[in-house]
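Here is one chain, start to finish.
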Amino acid sequence: MPRHQVRSIPEGRARGGSRGRAVQRTRRGQAGRAWRAPWLASARTAATIPGVALALNLATLLILVLPAARPVSAEPSRLPLEELPGRISIVVGEDQVISPEEARVPSLVLDPEGALLVVDHLRGFLVGRFRLPAEFDPSASAPLGGVTLEAGGLEGPPLPDSPLTPLPAQPGFPFLARGPLAGGVCLSDGDGDGTLELFTATTDGYLYRIDARGDRAAGWPRRLNEPIYAPPAAGDLDADGIPEIVLGSVGGLVHVWDTDGRAKRGWPRLIGHDGFPTGSIFGAPALADLDGEPGLEVCIGTSTGLMAVLDSAGEFLPGWPQVLPPATNPPNPAGLLASPAAADLDGDGRTELVAATNAGQVHVWRADGHPLPGWPVALPDGARAGYGDVAIGDITGDGRSEIVVTSERGLHGQATVSVLDAEGRMLPGWPFELSATCNAGAALGDVNGDGRADVVVATIGGDAAIYALDGLSSRPLANWPVYLRNRTINASPLLADLDGDGGIDVLVAALSAGLDSRASIWAFDAKTAQIPGFPILLPGDEIIRATPTVMDLDRDGDLELIAVTELLNSVHVWDLQAACDPERLPWPSLSGGCTRVGLLGAEPVTKAPSPRQPERDPSLSAASPLTAIGFELKASTEVQLVIFDIHGHPIRRLLDTRLPPGRYQIRWDGQDDRGQERASGIYFYQLSLEGRATTRQLLLLH
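Its structure:
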């Protein structure tokens, strides 16, 4: 079996400190430089670091150990649980590197029996447990290299088939759909019970309604009989106090359903005009009041360049649809592949509609279809702009809204972010040139806390870049951009306080840039430090193309993160355990909210009726023991909690009783039902609430 080369990776940012008998956390990098290290920019970068490099394949592990900071006993049978210094990088197969940050800063420890544990303690994941060979002497004064550990000593799979994150999954999730989920979700309280339901559609034409417990509503999914790639939107079209669900199809049809699963009268409606090709709908509809009458209009574009506005009965408003002109130099159709936006730009009390096209133009219309004076305008170098949703907000602090448009590369220039005022003039300092193409819209919010909205965008390509730009000057904020090596970002960023510290954080969903399909979700604070619990690494081959959503789904007072996938057809919901603060959710979903109008502050978030502030789960701490199991009961519930070994055998029944409402933290002492202490390693727990079971991984370290 061939051995792979050991690679060293420059030290990035880690979270330092240790506690009790917990495993080691590595040294902290230079403040503010976590994501500017060279290895993020090039897969070929190598540097010498203090610590440990670990190469892992299915048969052997090759370890290079540098001198220990302090000697430990060389007697394997008497070794206590001691820390070894440094960092490790993991190489899985040929040229597949898991970085220290992506591996959640794993560490090496010696267990009481003298075996070498390779532990990713932030995720609660045991990479491996190996018997030390005779030539391995941790007290040696000289570096020892070339030590081979046989993989036969490996306990548990190195890459489990569940998402790698210490964030707890919402009970009942992931939910498995019938087909790929490409468009994301929208949230709505369809039954008026105070909690939100999520709506999502598959590429083979099924529309789902799923509650906060992961249950599919009766009568759902509804069959649409055509592919759906567009994100859904939710809003009260007919002003009856009950929201409708609106989405477009590949065939150019717009569907409107009530939350009970009934198609509304007058729908679906084909977007067409005098023999002009209809095209497909890939962007979400914007639901806005354009005509000043009660209810909302449906504003939606097609891939051939039709822009339509329809009333709640499915009728076109006068002056619509509009046929948008193509570009001539170079020739480009005026495709609309993303969502339009809606806002009162000129201050007259009436809402205007804004759309950017693949022909490199930005249009602004009044409700009657007439353009606002000064529009349309052409973007610099003929840059194509129909792929990203338009965003609108006051980013200069002057009390007026500006229009933010992202683009691909132009005929003679780079991909850009453009900011235009209500008259169509480019603001000073803009456009800002990006390092690569941007295929998604911007997110707006005050990232650095200076009182003005910033512009956050992400790029596609082999080394995706995440930019946070000052709205007034267009200059990148301190420590930005962040580069994700060998990643591409096709979805818009989100802005929210994800960790409950009061600051605005940035979240993106990324894909691997190679031939494999590895999906991950990353989150950073304003200084580009990673948020605890991130990145979330999705299992095996997986795709997240849609923008995730952050909201208090179950109305328990804290936030949930929602993401959908295309290969395993999954709806994931994780509990972030940060309070849902309406002032700290500037851009929580695609286009800023589920009406998809793309306007900063257009959809105020209401707090849950419960005044409870959620407690921080200690299992998210890097040094806490990972044997605590937390859950919350809203009513008296029959609860069973059982621990299983790695072979699936039950070894300890912790609970089998009815518990009153409340928040619980159950800790396992590491013993089985016979009172015998179990060995360190991977275990599983199964929590059953009224017969509804959830199974998760657990790491025991003595």
